């Protein structure tokens, strides 16, 4: 089919890119959530936006589980904290532990229950259908792009989120009863920040530290 996206002037391109950059500079990972209700229809739109991501051979190898049930979130927290305890007490290297010090984190993860919802992202290691298994391509890359769009969309509507990876994450597939071809990729608590929310005072790398020009 014919495709002709909007084309804007160079001046408008510069303004839009500047405005987007300034907004994204305010995005932070948050571990302290308000119990305020969130309009889930808006969150569903964010998940739909994630589903517009490009993927290898257009296989769309992802599932997004929107979890608001308190009992399920409690089970996820118990299982996550059990794995995190092992991480903080032997699995993680001393260098890793030192790198985490500015974030003041430990195995206790109240945000799993405090946040009004979770989006648990699964990657499809292979496809399934009437003809049986089929191959998926560039699965990690595809799902990673989709998650980036999802986090951006949540920020766009004024919500905060956290990328939580309580590795290993097999328990997520078990609790949520996902099919055999799905592997947990990321757990994303989301909501509004609590009134006493704090984040580390971090500096992002300058553009000259992350971009190399060849011209």
Determine the fraction of residues in helical runs and give it as a percent range. 40-55%
Topology pattern, helix = H, strand = E: HHEHHHEHEHEH
Q: Sum up the overall morphology in one term.
A: globular
Mean pLDDT equals: 95
Domain tally: 1
Query: Tell me about the biggest sheet?
Result: 4 strands, antiparallel
Quick one: CATH class? Alpha Beta
Strand element count: 4
N- and C-termini, Cα separation: 34 Å
Oligomer kind: single chain
CATH homologous superfamily (4th level) name: NADH Oxidase
CATH architecture call: 3-Layer(aba) Sandwich
What is the fold named in CATH at topology level? Answer: NADH Oxidase
- Which structural class fits the helix and strand makeup? alpha+beta
């Amino acid at each position: 089919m014919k495709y002709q996206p909007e084309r804007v002037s160079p001046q408008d391109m510069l303004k839009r890119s500047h405005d987007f950059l300034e907004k994204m500079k305010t995005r932070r990972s948050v571990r302290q959530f308000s119990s305020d209700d969130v309009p889930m229809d808006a969150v569903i739109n964010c998940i739909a936006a994630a589903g517009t991501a490009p993927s290898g051979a257009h296989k769309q190898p992802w599932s997004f589980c929107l979890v608001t049930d308190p009992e399920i979130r409690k089970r996820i927290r118990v299982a996550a904290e059990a794995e995190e305890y092992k991480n903080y007490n032997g699995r993680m290297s001393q260098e890793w532990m030192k790198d985490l010090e500015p974030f003041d984190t430990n195995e206790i993860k109240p945000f799993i229950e405090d946040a009004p919802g979770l989006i648990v992202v699964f990657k499809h290691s292979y496809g399934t259908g009437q003809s049986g298994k089929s191959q998926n391509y560039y699965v990690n890359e595809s799902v990673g792009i989709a998650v980036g769009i999802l986090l951006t969309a949540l920020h766009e509507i004024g919500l905060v989120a956290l990328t939580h990876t309580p590795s290993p994450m097999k328990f997520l597939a078990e609790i949520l009863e996902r099919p055999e071809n799905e592997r947990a990729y990321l757990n994303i608590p989301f909501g509004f920040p609590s009134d006493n929310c704090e984040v580390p005072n971090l500096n992002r790398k300058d553009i000259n530290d992350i971009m190399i020009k060849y011209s």
